[in-house]
Amino acid sequence: MALDRKLAIIDLSTGKIETKVIPLDLRKKFLGGRALDAYLLYNHTKKGCDPLGPGNTLLISGGILTATCASATARTHFMAKSPLTGLLGSANMGGFFAPELAWAGFHHLVIKGKAKKPVYIYIHNGEIEIRDAAYLWGKTTTETQWAIREEMGDEEIKSCVIGPAGENLVTFANIMTGIKNAAGRTGMGCVMGSKNLKAVAVRGTMDVKIAHPVEALEFNKRFIEQITSAKVNQTQGVLGTPFIWGATNSWGGVRTRNFQYNQCEDSDDIEPERIDEICTETMGPHHMTGCFGCQVHCRAQYKIPSGLYAGKYDEGPEYTSLGAFGGEPDCKSAVTVLTGNHLVNQYGMDNLEIGSLIAWAMELYEKGILTSKQTDGLDLKFGNDEALLEMITRICYRKGWLADALADGGIPASEKIGKKSFDYLIQVKGMNNLHSDERGTPALALNSATASRGSDHLRSRPAIDLYHLPEKVLRRIYGNPVPYDGPLSSDHTEYKGKPWQVFWQENCYMAVDALGICKYHTVFLGATLPNFDDWPKVIYYNTGLEMTPQEIFEIAERSNMVERMFNLREGLTRDDLKKGDMLNHRYFDEPCRRGALDVVGAKIDKKKFMKMVDELYEFKGLDKKGIPKPETLKRLGLNKEPSHQL
Amino acid sequence: MTIDADKLSGAESLRATRSYGKIRCHNPTCMERMVPEPGAKHAKCPTCAMEYRIYWVNSTLPRVRGPVWEVNRKLAEEKLAKMGGK
Question: How many C-beta atoms lie closer than 10 Å to residue A545's C-beta?
Answer without folding.
Answer: 18
